[in-house]
Amino acid sequence: MTLNFIFKLLLVGSLINFFYTSTFAQTECANPGTANDIIKCLQQKHPNVISDSLINEATKSLIKQETNWKNPEFSIENIRGKKTGESINELEMRISQSIEFNSVRNARKNLAVAKGESLKAENLAQVEAITLYGIKSLFRLRQINEEIDKMSEAINKFKIIKRQYQSRAKLAPDQEVTFAIIELAISDFEIQLNQLNAEKNETLNLMMANSGLRYEQIQNNLPKQISNWPKISNAEKDINSSSLKMNRASIDESKARMDLANSFSLSEFSLDLIAQNNKEGDTKFNTYGIGITFPLPFFQRNQGERKLTAIDLYKAQNVYNAEILKSSKMLETFSALYESSVNNLKNTPSELSIEIKHRRAEALFNQGLISGSLIIETHRQVIDYIKNRNAEEMRAMEALWNIYILNGSFMNQAI
Questions:
Q1: Per-residue b/e over 203-231, b at no fewer than 16 CB within 10 Å?
Q2: Following DSSP, what letter does each residue of 146-208 receive, concatenated?
Q3: CA dist 49 to 15, 44, 69, 137, 337, Å?
Q4: Which of 43, 231, 247, 313 to pair with 304, CA 20 to 30 A apart?
Q5: What is the pLDDT, as a whole number, of residue 186?
Q6: Sorting pLDDT into bands at 50, 70 and 90, what band is 371?
Q7: What CATH number does residue 359 fall under?
Q8: What integer pLDDT is reported at residue 221 of this predicted model?
Q9: Cβ contacts of residue 161 below 8 Å, gap of 6+?
Q10: In terms of pLDDT, which residue wins out, 329 or 353?
Q11: Distance between CA atoms of 335 and 396, rounded to whole angstroms?
């Protein structure tokens, strides 16, 4: 059995024990009161996530296994025959104990620790992806609700205008054109409304499936629109992401494998305790002894495996250094994107001022001072603006949480 197989077997056993004995996740996610609670539920209940305590337990079990002594071996031999007409009977019992050198046991221990750290990093990568998915989904749901409200309001207004034109006995040429534009606008906005409802249902269904929460628990705890965006300090630009931890664990694993390869030629010796019961004719006697067996590294010194593991370690170190550079550039990119998007959002008109202008345009239409085509264009501009602002907000939010993921602080952040 390979080390990977043994580690996974221990982990599966721990998982089974955990799910039968623990109800922490169910009680933690029973009554979410904020958007942050929903994110915590996702982090706990998503099927791709394993608790760190389970990984630690499996790692400890594997370390104990790798540092324990090997099981002793017992053998027994019975030899019978004759010598100068006398019967001979020899019974030998032997207990053999293999004893490994500390360098071997330490290397296997370090390999087990590296395997555990690697699995932790892989699990953290899952939590990072799930957290980012949850943040984007919750903000998008709030945006969709806003867009649905504006779209429904526009459709209702267009239908009112359409009925006003239909109630007239005869339409002037410009009114006929406006009437046709209104019909097209209603159809266009109804299609967009259906698309928004489909997106909302799909997003909600996925969130409910992954978090175990009900429809109203998610809908009632959506995040508010952010007015004061946080500033990114220089201290938050240090790299401590899951990918960096995976590469660091890969270095430790390669180092442990190299140490194992280096100790292969003289890794253990065997100590034997021997007892013999002898009988030659009428003479009986017992003998006792001790034996020691160890390899002599004259011909096989594992040179090939040593060189291969040295290459693997060199490669792991290069990959780690490249990951640091890559993550630093990504952090710079996300920081610039975040600053740009936040500045754009700060320079956009407030929702109150847009609503005032919107109501002003409707009042002018009701007074007959502007045409129906202008009120249609007003509603279209308002909706286009909301969509563009929401897209910019999503870019800023995604950049912000990517920064948190890269610097390893995302678990301590709040929406």
A1: bbeebeebbbbeeebbeebbbeeeeebee
A2: HHHHHHHHHHHHHHHHHHHHHTSS---HHHHHHHHHHHHHHHHHHHHHHHHHHHHHHHHHHHH
A3: 11, 7, 34, 18, 30
A4: 247
A5: 93
A6: low
A7: 1.20.1600.10
A8: 94
A9: 182, 365, 372, 375, 376
A10: 329
A11: 9
Domains in the chain: how many in total? 1
Global pTM reads: 0.80
Structural domain range at position 187: 3-70+102-266+301-412
Q: How many CB atoms lie within 10 A of CB 52?
A: 13
Question: pLDDT of 304-323, one tens digit each?
Answer: 888 999 999 999 999 999 99
CA distances from 209 to 59, 221, 282, 300, 307 (A): 30, 17, 84, 57, 49
Residue type, 112: A
> Could you tell me if residue 363 is inside a domain?
yes
Residue 274 lies in a domain: no
Nearest 5°: CA angle at 350, between 345 and 353?
150
Q: Is the pLDDT of residue 1 over 50?
A: no
Other C-beta atoms closer than 10 Å to the C-beta of 273 total: 15
Element (H, E) at 271: strand 268-280
Q: Mean pLDDT check: name the lowest of 6-10, 173-177, 402-406.
A: 6-10
Count the neighbouring beta carbons within 10 Å of the beta carbon of residue 11: 20
The H or E element containing residue 237 is none
pLDDT per residue as tens digits for the range 374-386? 878 888 888 899 9
Residues 389 and 349: beta-carbon distance below 8 Å: no
For residues 158 and 363, give the distance between their C-alpha atoms in angstroms, rounded to a whole number: 14
More confident residue, 302 or 3: 302
